[in-house]
Specification:
By secondary structure, this protein is of the alpha+beta class. The two termini are about 35 Å apart. β1 and β2 form a beta hairpin. The chain folds into 2 domains: about 70 residues, no CATH class; about 220 residues, Alpha-Beta Complex (Fumarylacetoacetate hydrolase, domain 2).
């Protein structure tokens, strides 16, 4: 299934699922038995599952057309956002342009940083160009959404903790990022101004036909102003989401709705494609990220 958050005709945030061009409001169709927000549904999915299954077997008249609806980020206010660096080709390209070698520690542990969970950007929404930066970049990523709480989760059990997957764009102010990394902290200010997710969350069960061992055969592409500039595949990832979840939950509790980003797919950002002193995004640019079954995440850069 594909779960969304959207604004209804009364201007209220609602949760639902999407089939083709139709959005189903789970709160309205269940007469309030299902919650109005997707995070609440994920937190109580076990108790809500039977009600949802009832609705899936019924015909409905009170529906919304996707083209007439404002989609929000599927989780407008997630509890947390962790972003890993799990694609080796991304590091090879980026470190080469930076004149550095990949640290040997990267091959020993899946590493991540915390991003700003209060700076989530919706599909189709504008992304303001960050102040004091001249080097705005996109990052083509996939993220998993945690479906139940857990601590010290073994990678063998980790898939049971995944609710679903969505596209993630980890917008990056490269000049701010490079400054703070020299200090030995971060990335922080180079990353915390915007993270786009969406357009929906596809459940793990819906992607089983794409499963390849511990990963998924999902094509990932990026376009700028309609021109494809990047293409990769999730199956080429070095660390699986199970390994990322094991690392993220070490000595720490994960909660429903927590977002875990894969890191950038190989060739999935301008830092890789053009180096540190060449082409960056500018106001007016339209960035489209597309992943098999996960849809298209589209945003426009503004002043």
């Amino acid at each position: 299934m594909k779960f969304v958050s959207f604004i209804n005709v009364n201007g209220e945030e609602r949760a639902g699922w999407i089939e083709g061009e139709t959005i189903y409001d789970m709160y309205e169709l269940s007469d309030g038995r299902l919650p109005s927000k997707l995070l609440t549904f994920i937190e109580g999915r076990e108790q809500y599952e039977s009600i949802l299954n009832e609705l899936l077997n019924e015909e409905h008249r009170s529906l919304y057309n996707l083209g007439d609806t404002e989609l929000l980020a599927p989780l407008p206010k997630p509890p947390s956002v962790r972003d890993f660096m799990s694609f080796e080709l991304h590091l090879q390209n980026a470190y080469k342009n930076l004149g550095k070698e990949i640290p040997k520690e990267w091959y020993e542990i899946p590493a991540f940083y915390f991003s700003n969970h209060h700076a989530i950007i919706a599909p189709e929404a504008s992304v303001p160009y960050p102040k004091r930066s001249n080097c705005l970049d996109f990052e083509l990523e996939i993220a998993c959404v945690i479906g139940k709480s857990g601590k010290d989760i073994r990678k063998e059990d980790a898939e049971d903790y995944i609710f679903g997957f969505t596209i993630l764009n980890d917008w990056s102010a490269r000049d701010l990022q490079m400054e703070e990394l020299k200090v030995g902290l971060g990335p922080a200010k180079g990353k915390d101004f915007a993270t786009s997710i969406g357009p929906y969350i596809v459940t793990r069960e819906s992607l089983q036909e794409y499963k390849v061992e511990d990963n998924y055969n999902l094509t990932m592409t990026a376009k700028i102003n309609g021109k494809e500039i990047s293409k990769g595949n999730l199956k080429d990832i070095h660390y699986s989401f199970a390994e990322m979840i094991e690392r993220a939950s070490l000595n720490a509790m994960l909660y429903p709705g927590d977002i875990i980003g894969s890191g950038t797919v190989g060739t999935g950002c301008l830092l890789e494609l053009s180096g540190v002193n060449k082409s960056w995004l500018k106001p007016g640019d339209v960035v489209e990220l597309e992943i098999t079954e996960l849809g298209i995440l589209k945003n426009t850069i503004v002043e």
